[in-house]
Amino acid sequence: MYLTRMYLNPARRGTRALVGSPQKMHAAVLSAFPPGTPTETESGRVLWRLDVGKTHELTLLISSPVKPDLAHVVEQAGWPTGQDHWQSAPLSRLTERLETGQSWAFRLTANPVRSVAQGSGRGKRVGHATVQHQLEWLVERSADWGFDIGGRDGRLTADVVSRRGLSFERRSDGDRRQITLTTATYEGTLTVSDPKLLRLSMGHGLGRAKGYGCGLLTLAPRT
């Protein structure tokens, strides 16, 4: 698995088009892999996330089984005259170092949802609307993903730093469908409880809406 980083130029029209539609960004990310390239393996699948910095800089992160070629994204939304338009590094440099009990700083954008019963049929998935429920969603699932954010004193070691409600059009085989998503971006410190599970979670993503910029968990040393 590889983690790739590319900075987007917020002044370009192409950037605004990609940022405004997770469907278009999803298509652009998948186009970074030639036909026949595996986009999902035992180790993981293609995931992406768009990070917005404190000064509104835009960073596209992609996790993938093979290195992507983002030349088309550079032409549409990058700085074509620069060098080193994107950087890729093996995720194994980090994941092979994971051990039980370690603490890492983390960032995750996810689609926290709940199932609402609809008669006798299958429940409808609805996004959690409050910060409290979005945090509870992550806490309840963290053990299954190989980490803990409970804190030794019982307090949470993570918070929701941004939330968005997204609505965009999805086109497939001539059909048009309006997609609505609720996303939450979490930051904080996690403690590794199961290194193997955490490696799998980082490779395959957390939660739903993985094709639309959700599910990519990244770690960094605590500062």
From TrEMBL:
<dbReference type="Pfam" id="PF08798">
    <property type="entry name" value="CRISPR_assoc"/>
</dbReference>
<protein>
    <submittedName>
        <fullName>Type I-E CRISPR-associated protein Cas6/Cse3/CasE</fullName>
    </submittedName>
</protein>
<dbReference type="InterPro" id="IPR010179">
    <property type="entry name" value="CRISPR-assoc_prot_Cse3"/>
</dbReference>
